[in-house]
Amino acid sequence: MASHGLTYEGCNFLRQRLVLSALSGKRVKIKNIRSKDDEPGLRDFEANFIRLLDKLTNGSTIEINQTGTVLVYQPGLLYGGTVEHDCNPQRSIGYYLEALLMLGPFMKSPLKATLRGVTNDLTDPTVDLLKSTALPVMKKFGIDGEGFDIKVRTSWYSRGMAPGGGGEVVFTCPVRKTVRPVQLTDPGKIKRIRGVAYSVRVSPQMGNRIVESARGILNQFLPDIYIYTDHMKGANSGKSPGFGLTLVAETLNGYFLSAEMLSTPQGQGDPILPEDLGRNCAKLLLEEIYRGGCVDSSNQSLALLLMTLGQQDVSKVLLGPLSPYTIEFLRHIRDFFQIMFKIEVQKPLEDERKGGDKVLMTCVGVGYSNISKTLK
Amino acid sequence: MPFKKQKQHQQKHSGPKAEKKKLKKQNGSTEEDERKRNPKAFAVQSAVRMAKTFHRAQDIKTKKHHVPVVDRTPLEPPPIVIVVVGPPKVGKSTLIRCLIKNFTRQKLTDICGPVTIVSGKKRRLTFMECNNDINSMIDLAKVADLVLMLIDASFGFEMETFEFLNICQVHGFPRIMGVLTHLDAFKNNKTLRKTKKNLKHRFWTEVYQGAKLFYLSGMVYGEYQNQEVKNLGRFISVMKFRPLVWQTSHPYILADRIEDLTDPERLRTDPKCDRTVSLYGYLRGTHLKNKGQVHIPGVGDFQMSDVNFLPDPCPLPGTQKKRALNEKERLLYAPMAGVGGVVYDKDAVYIDLPANHVKQLQEVRPTTELVQSLIETHVTLDAKMAASKVSLFSGSAGLDPTDIMQEGLREIHVWDAHTQTQRRKVVFTGLEEEEDDVSGSSSDEDDDGSDQENQEEEDDLSTFLKEVRDKSEKATKGSTPPVKKRKLEEMQGEEEVIAEAPAFADSEDELERGEADSEGEGEAERAGDSGHCSKESEEDSDDEEDGDEDDESMEEEIGADDSDEEEEQGKYHSGLFTFSLCSILWTFKWKEGLQQKASAAFLRHQEAAPNLRKLVYGSVVEAEDSEEEEEELGGLFRVNRPQKSKKVQADALDCSHFNPDISHNWELEEMLNSIRDCFVTGQWEEGQDAATLLKEDEELYGDFEDLETGKVHKGTTGEQDQAEVRDSEYSVKMDDEEVQKNKRLEKKRRLKERFDTEYDDGDATYFDDLKEEMQKQAELNRAEFEDMDDESRVQYEGFRPGMYVRLEISSLPCEFVTNFDPHYPVIIGGLGTSEGNVGYLQMRLKKHRWYERILKTRDPLILSLGWRRFQTIPLYHIEDHNGRHRLLKYTPQHMHCGASIWGPITPQGTGFLAVQSVSGVKANFRIAATGVVLDLDKSVTIVKKLKLIGYPYKIFQNTCFIKGMFNTVLEVAKFEGASIRTVSGVRGQIKKALSTPPGAFRATFEDRLLMSDIVFLRSWYPVSIPQLYNPVTSLLLPVGQKDSWSGMRTVGQLKHDLGVRNKPSIDSLYKPITRAPRHFNPLHIPKELQKALPFKSKPKLLQPKGKVPRDLKRASVIREPHERKVAELLRALSTVHHYKKKVAQRAHHAKHKEFLQQKEKDEEAKMKRMKDARKKLYRIMGQKDQKKQRSSLKGTPQDD
Fold first, then answer.
1. Angle, to 10 degrees, between the axis of helix B730-759 and the axis of helix B716-727?
2. ω before A324 within 30° of 0 (cis)?
3. Which pLDDT score is estimated for A158?
């Protein structure tokens, strides 16, 4: 009687598919995973992700064929609780955390996930970025409360830069039965910019150099800029050297736009100067502001998911241009939940100087309720 | 298990309590009086107490609040489902007939399936009769808005009534109205009154105090009295309903029309094949998503292959202001009963047009000819035509939907010429022409279709439609029922038509939309796209026009490419005629090659307002479909090309980063300027600019008086304005005054607003805020998609409740069609996300107090949960104090217990009911248990108590060797350290396994054991829940036997049916208890202890006497006869002597007694005498004394 499930091809968007499958209870089959590749099948980090998903759920069945090119996932119930996981250093913790953010509120018991591995790398949003942008987005949807946090306490939190890793992050998330519909249509003006310039296993001067150069660009717009320098030593500094910058712009209405930039990992590509990094990161933030919207580009899919899972009411959110990842996510949402978004492009007025086109996404939620939660 | 009858409550008839009560009853409410009479009693005695009462009152008040929910009722609600229930022969059909007659002035002889009528300007009703089958009762209770519960007053309540009430209670409580019938059976007025009252009060306790109960006093010519029916009708039409949780969170349809669409050829070859069936009905509850999963109670779970909405067969009248409906608007729609137009039999179509209906039916239904033509061609076509025409008219609002079917064909021309201005070419004559035209149109895309072109299109379209229609008519005339596919195959020659269709589809935005819903997913998207375009063009927003044209041009290019390809391949030609197939074909072609374009165009379109919607939802289709394009070499080998862009994308890096646009150079000043206003330092909008706000504030608060100096400061702006006014000419003065007035009004309004926010909102409670928020959300929900046409609207929010929809389900079992009985409701219940899965459910369950037996674990039970009815095997358990779920063998009598089942995933908080069998009618109450779902979990932790028993075989001091509990050393090893106990309560522990005998172990106890002791180990063994989920397929049973579904039998039933008697274990039998007398060893007290004991506690057992020596033994004397005589005599003498002595003693005794009495008497007399003497003496002495005294006082006494 179980529903027939969906079939996809290729390893791209694996997380989206598995996460949506777990939320919707639909079986998913992914074929031809790197079938034409020299090394066919799932990579280690993907297998690691599946293992994490298995830890979070109860009663899910995962079938992988011998070459690893076909994956069949029959989701179980989201269980949550205390989970410890060693993430594969091929991808950063952000890769895993993005999925956890989506699943966290719909568990049976509040989630407390301890993830170990690479906290910051180039490919995925870093932990700092997610902490400063994803959590506020979720709070807008009523997912809030005590212990909703990605822990950044220096006493036992440590950074691990790209190749080596060795960082640790604790993500705690309360459980919600339903998600509130939202109307996030007016981003408001940016009132302040905050940031963290971090450096591990390099000279502590790096942080200051980054800050200096980033401020140089951003001060043209706003005086209220404060960038913390975060230098970690000893056990907290992970296994590899590196440095980076995360910038977050906060608007009057409490929305966050962010950008980040990291040094190239040790032994991969040309090294980057901290000044260049600061400047480039500031430009990235400007680009993000140019795109605008109420949710920044890396959290678009999270916001859209929470809209989809809301009550059967109209939710609206103003986004910048949709990223390819988000576009695929929208398609997946339609496959899994039969929800289509109304997409309206808002063009800026002639004399307005507020960046590029915005996209107003509107949808009616599916009326999802957390079926894992126990009734007492 | 026979139940003990509980002792009934006995009311007091006499005594103080009864009198008090009587007094109370007589006086009625004396409260006010008391307050006046005794004000002190009601005065404030204690502030704390006062606070407590206040809190309590507030608590009660707050408790009355319902949690506010967003009002999601649609503007045009679906007809209200009125379920008429009652035992057989109570007058259900008669009541429905009367009500229908009352509302529509029409007589409906056969009530068969749901009957929908228009009862008022805002209200439609669907009547459904519930037959006396528990399956129907359960199903209908779930969809009912209002229940008319018929009760035969001459008989009283019957079990069915109570059963139905209990079913209702479990599945959300719809409104229930009781109707008493057969009141004319009472001859005696008093008994009538009494019965009415009794029944009313019983009804009230079941429903709620004051529930409405109607009385239908008697029949007139086989109908109920007009006035009474009218009153009932009035009540129904003003009734308000509250939302029920399950109904408002799930879409559902009560099917009122069913058609079998299966290919007759397939039917002929395989009569048992799965059927494709379309079901029609009003959508209720909430939005229905296409392609969702549904459950049909009594049949099973199905995937909807298609949904589309149709024109309302029973539309509400227009909104003109008048009080009553006219005759035309009193519509009646009951296809299953054969009213309202067409009835479909297995392979024939009956059109019922009674004389008195003709006029109305023409309004509602299309003409027979057209109906037949449409139906006979193919039903998808029918639906499509209907749908597409609706969308044709959406532009020209205010048209009566009833006209649509009739005038559709004619109207198309009008529509073509006027509404749709940017049309593209449509050519129907031949392939070459079409290709030319398409390419032509793509070349001159900027020019928005000249009038000439439009004209051309019109003609082509009309010819095409005519052709279609001709063919369909031809089909109708054919002797065999026309089959779509077969027919198509016959028409091989007509390739123009096929070729035309793609072009047609390509150009016709609106018609595509019509088709959209009936096609696959890709089709839906495609249609939606075009709908979006046209909507925007209607809005005439210049900005978006460009984007649309771009898209359309792109689309056209692709279309052109496709038609080229089609020419080359030429393999789709044979037999594609209908819209559906053509458009499928077309989409396949359309899809190809768009992917690359779309992805390439993505970044380019970022600036140029792309039709994002198309980009997002349009290109999925090719990703799925444009796969295998591999070339073959000699039909054997395939060329394995390096992966194309799509494949690369499929295996690309999974990353949510959005790379920045490289074209933006943030060194440049203009780029920086382009985001200046995003910061607080940038320029603000008119309304929020600091300068404007300041000015406003000045206007409001500019005037003030300095209290110290008494100087009045005036706002500068006002003065300036006045000055300006003075300066200006007289002619413009009037205008200025107007402006001033407006300004003043504005100012006033703002002041008032400020006041309101300051004072009113402070008072608003959390509840009010919440309510307001919900209200806002509801308004937003309504407004968001309001101005959209239905076709595109359904894509975003799904099908709205209130729409008349048609569902197509492709694989229904054939029994559903062959054994269809319209008297049984066909309900299509939508399932939420993951409600289609099966898993473990934990529930709280209580045996119904009216059910006569307790329920046994592992006995199959039929549950009604959510939409479903299914049989499953529950395990009952109870939670121990430490959170352990202990398995129970039976449900407790009057208590809740837990139940775990394997069944469909249903949200927590959903109620369910259980019955043991659904077949037949039993004498007793059938609802065995009720409860609620608590938890869904994939793993369950129910344990049952298991006692392992062993026997000691060697006892040392406190150590003991025990055997028989385990079988191997390994088993013992697993239980090392476990605590064990004897039956007599001596506790111990398992220590270590012994080598022989296998399974024996050494254990220590707190005391020495006896060989006769039994040792046991208490353990908890996890129990697995049997995975039985057996949906009740009662609708698939043959007509007349639908109430005879029987599933898995219980063990007890099986044994009974097969005549198997249980052979019990001999140990379990009851036997007379024979207890061997127990021999106790004597108590041994050590000598030392004995010595120390006090004599009292010393054992008194003397030494047994030893043998008496011979010399000490006395020899026995044997008397001589003489001696014996002497002894005899002596004995006799002594006896006499004794007797004499005794008598003498007795006499002496009596004498002595007498003597004593005498003595006493004498004594007494003596005492008396002495007393008297003493008295006399004392008196004399006293006198003497007196005399002496007197003389001493007087001096010397004189001589006498």
1. 160
2. no
3. 74
Rounded to 5°, angle at Cα B13 from B9 and B17: 90
By Cβ distance, the residue of A2, A108, A338 closest to B838 is A2
Contact B837, A3 (CB under 8 A): yes
Chain A residue numbers with beta carbons less than 8 Å from the beta carbon of B796 are 340-342, 362-364
CA atoms in the 13 A half-sphere facing the CB of B615: 28
Span between the terminal Cα atoms of chain A, in Å: 29
Question: Which pLDDT score is estimated for A258?
Answer: 92
What is the H or E stretch that residue B563 is in? Answer: helix B542-569
In A, minimum Cα distance to B672 occurs at A286
- Residue B37 burial by CB count (10 A; 0-12/13-18/19+): exposed, middle or buried? exposed
CA distance B211 to B204: 6
Q: Answer yes or no: do B675 and A362 touch at CB < 8 A.
A: no
User: Which residues in chain A have Cβ-Cβ distances shorter than 8 Å to B905?
Assistant: 25, 371
Instruction: Output the six-digit token pair for A7.
Output: 């079939």
pLDDT of B755-804, one tens digit each? 777 666 556 678 888 888 888 888 888 888 888 888 888 888 889 899 99
Q: Phi and psi (nearest 5°) for B333?
A: -140, 110
DSSP letter (8 states) at residue B890: B
Tell me if B140 sits within 8 A of B130, measured CB to CB: yes
Beta-bridge partner residues of B332:
B117
Partner-chain residue, chosen from B72, B682, B908, that has the shortest CB–CB distance to A353: B682
Quick check: A191 and B680 CB within 8 A?
Answer: yes
CB interface of B with A, residues 298-327, below 8 Å: 300-301, 303
Distance from the B884 Cα atom to the nearest Cα atom in chain A, whole angstroms: 16
d(CA B594, CA B617): 12
- Tell me if B435 sits within 8 A of B557, measured CB to CB: no
| Complex prediction ipTM | 0.89
* Residues B73, B165 contacting (CB under 8 angstroms): no
Could you say which of B660, B683, B798 has the minimum Cβ distance to residue A284? B660
Give how far Cα B198 sits from Cα of B9, B22, B157, Å.
Answer: 18, 21, 10
Q: For residue A97, what is the enclosing H or E element?
A: helix A93-103
The residue of chain B with its CA nearest to that of A313 is: B781
CB within 8 Å: A362 and B784:
yes
pLDDT in tens, B351-397: 555 444 444 433 444 444 444 444 444 444 444 444 444 433 434 43
For residue B444, what pLDDT band results from cuts at 50, 70 and 90?
very low
Interface residue B870 vs chain A (CB under 8 A): no
Cβ–Cβ contact B677 with A under 8 A: yes
pLDDT band for B649, please (50, 70, 90 cuts).
low
B909 vs A: CB within 8 A: yes
The helix-helix angle for B521-539 and B509-516 (nearest 10°) equals 140
Question: Do A286 and B666 make contact, defined as CB atoms within 8 angstroms?
Answer: yes
B932 close contact with A: CB closer than 8 A:
yes
For residue A26, the chain B residues in CB contact (below 8 A) are: 833-834
SS3 category, B3: coil
| Token code pair at residue B493 | 């020659």
Amino acid at A199: S
Q: Work out whether strand B175-181 and strand B146-152 pair parallel, antiparallel, or are unpaired.
A: parallel
Quote the strand ranges of B610-762, DSSP E: 632-633, 637-638, 704-705, 712-713
User: Is B781's CB within 8 Å of A313's CB?
Assistant: yes
Alpha-carbon distance B479 to nearest alpha carbon in chain A (angstroms): 41
> What are B211-266's pLDDT values in tens digits?
999 999 888 888 899 999 999 999 999 998 888 889 998 999 999 888 888 888 99
Asked if B71 reaches chain A (Cβ–Cβ under 8 Å), the answer is no
